[in-house]
Amino acid sequence: MADLIIFIWFSVLLTLAHSQQEDSTIENITVDMKTKWLRWTNLKNVTEVHCTVNKLINGSPDFAYQIKATNNSACEIMGFHSWCQGVEYVIEGSAGKKFSKTFHFPQRGEKGTTEENLSCQIYDANIMDCKWTVRETPRDIKYQFFYSGTPDAFMDTECPKYKMDSEGRNVGCHFDNLSGFQFPGIYHFLVNGTSSGREVQCIDDNLKLTNFEILKPPNINIKCTLSNCSMKWQKPKTILNFEDIVYELCIQKDGKGTEGKEKNCLSPKDTNYDFKIDEGKYSVKIRAKKSGKNWSEWSEPQEFDHKDNTLTLMLSLLGVVFIMLLIMGYLCKRYHVIQKIFPPIPHIKDQVSDIFQKNVQEVWEGDKILPEQCEIEEIRVIQKNQTVHQTKQDI
After folding, report:
1. Is the dihedral of CA 150, 152, 156, 162 positive or negative?
2. Global pTM?
3. Strand 114-123 to 213-214 pairing
4. Would you say 214 and 294 are in contact if contact means Cβ atoms under 8 Å apart?
5. Closest by alpha carbon to 206, among 149, 156, 148?
6. Which site among 205, 308, 322, 364 is 20 to 30 Å from 336 CA-CA?
7. Gap between the Cα atoms of 148 and 156, Å rounded
8. How far apart are CA 148 and CA 187, in angstroms?
9. What is the CA radius of gyration of the chain?
10. pLDDT by residue (tens digit) across 165-219?
11. Among residues 192, 193, 218, 220, which one has the least CA distance to residue 205?
């Protein structure tokens, strides 16, 4: 890592020193890649100084922007330019007459040793994989991956875990977590390498991590009634929770329609969706993305078979009612037969028991005879030519 930084600074200073011989208006030009400041020393009284940054692609200007100098002695380099592709800094102003000085940084490394292709993807809000394309030649090429530890800074940290191909060459970088990054922000990524001791063509880019985050498709929970289905899912995890999530939900019936066909798909604005349903087989899947970004993969299709159970329910109710009527009829009939076979047996009234049951209480008076304690029976016997009267008194 230290060797790479030293080489970069040496290349910058050497190029600037060679360029200073052309003009004596300014000198001691330096470029601080970390703070992104272009500075110089004025040898004359200069005014109206500004800087132009020309980004180069394959050695030719591709994009340019102009910056007004601070105190006519420094320019803050706004934005980012690819160090590997090359860049031109142009300082212009007036020192009694117009002056202009150009500093050309050529493309780094031997052309054709790598392809200009560096990409990264973030999964599950905490895992990142970066990869680059490696050409077949030279065979002994060795790559290193560097990135900036803080937003908007020049790369200063090497890859924590490389991915290798079958020949042992580094072809990717894996991050188990993103705790070392501060969100949001733009980070500088660079792939540099050597072959037989020579520097090979490097690749670098300025990337905003949120731009290449791939969301995990949600899992759908489905609950259906006789005529309606309710679908719910959780919002996918993302490195910035406040960002809006867009969903695409596709519902297909009986296998009809084409996957992803527009008429079968809709865009719910929330994490749930209700729809009316009739009898048939259904397949449901969903995917998600952040606004303006790439879609996630489709979730695994969930299939379910919905039948119209209205007729079955009505028949079931009628069956229950019929069974209840049968039971009631059986019980009534059985009770009537029992009454016929075993009629209730009449019994003689127990006078003594009945008297005690009445529980009549009276005050006892020794000399008093209660009327109900005496019974008088009069028997009249009529015989021929004689009448007999007999009276019986029981005390």
Report:
1. positive
2. 0.62
3. parallel
4. yes
5. 148
6. 322
7. 5
8. 6
9. 51
10. 888 889 999 999 988 887 777 888 988 888 887 778 788 888 888 888 889 999 9
11. 192
In whole angstroms, what is the distance from residue 382 CA to residue 139 CA?
157
Measured CA to CA, the distance from residue 283 to residue 301 in angstroms comes to: 6
The torsion angles phi and psi of 43, rounded to 5 degrees, stand at -90, -15
Residue 55 CA, chain-centre distance (Å), reads 39
Where does residue 243 rank: exposed (0-12), middle (13-18), buried (19+ CB within 10 A)?
Answer: middle
Residue 275 carries which side chain, given as an amino acid letter? Answer: F
3-state secondary structure of 158: strand
Q: Is 7 helix (H, G, I), strand (E, B) or coil?
A: helix
For 74-104, what is each residue's pLDDT tens digit? 998 876 667 787 788 889 999 989 998 887 7
What is the residue type of 169? Answer: R
Burial status of residue 227 (CB atoms within 10 A of its CB: 0-12, 13-18, 19 or more): exposed
Structure tokens belonging to residue 95 = 């020192």
pLDDT of residue 14: 41
Bridge partners (DSSP) listed for residue 173: 130, 162
Q: How many CB atoms are closer than 10 A to CB 363?
A: 5
CB 300 within 8 A of CB 285: yes
Cα distance between residue 44 and residue 21, in whole Å: 16
C-alpha 372/C-alpha 351 separation (Å) is 14
Summary count for the chain: helices (H), strands (E):
3, 26
Q: Which residue has the tokens 């087989």?
A: 281
CB 170 within 8 A of CB 200: no
Q: Fill in the DSSP letter of residue 110.
A: B
Residue with tokens 């079931």, as numbered in its chain: 316
d(CA 292, CA 207): 16
pLDDT band at 19 (very low <50, low <70, confident <90, very high): very low
Tokens for 170? 């580094």
H helical segments located in the chain = 2-20, 310-341, 351-358
Q: What's the N-to-C CA distance of the chain in angstroms?
A: 138
Report helix, strand or coil for 51. strand
